Amino acid sequence: MRVAIRLSPRAGAKRIDGIGRSADGAAVVKVSVTAPPAEHRANEALIALLAEEWQLPRRDVSIAGGAKSRNKRVHIAGQPRALLAKLAAALALLPGS
Questions:
Q1: How far is CA 30 from CA 26, 42, 79, 82, in A?
Q2: Nearest to residue 71, comparing CAs of 39, 13, 26, 34?
Q3: pLDDT digit string, tens, across residues 73-82
Q4: Most buried among 9, 15, 39, 80, using CB within 10 Å?
């Protein structure tokens, strides 16, 4: 499963901020991390945060696109139906959903 992310590095706190829209109108999950973008630290912090918040093994979360951009595609490995149910429940609680 792929999830569109809009990442804000060097934020004051690490958190999932809500659901937003990209320039083309597609839904994205807005995420903030305290790590800087240098040396892939923000990407690593993003993976750790998503795995923790969505109760997934860290090995199942990876950057599928946009490694050097704020706009990312994250791949979540696992059974699609179970993942969809878990993520839909978590995302439904976020602002903007």
A1: 12, 14, 24, 22
A2: 26
A3: 999 998 888 8
A4: 9
* Rounded distance between C-alpha atoms, residue 55 and residue 85, angstroms: 13
At 1-53, the pLDDT tens digits run 999 999 999 999 999 999 999 889 999 999 999 999 999 999 999 999 999 99
**What's this model's pTM, rounded to 2 decimal places?**
0.89
φ and ψ at residue 61, rounded to 5 degrees: -115, 125
Closest CA to 74 of 96, 46, 36: 46
63 touches 74 (CB < 8 A): yes
In the chain, the domains with their CATH numbers are 2-92 (3.30.1200.10)
Q: At a CB cut-off of 8 Å and minimum separation 6, what does 93 contact?
A: none
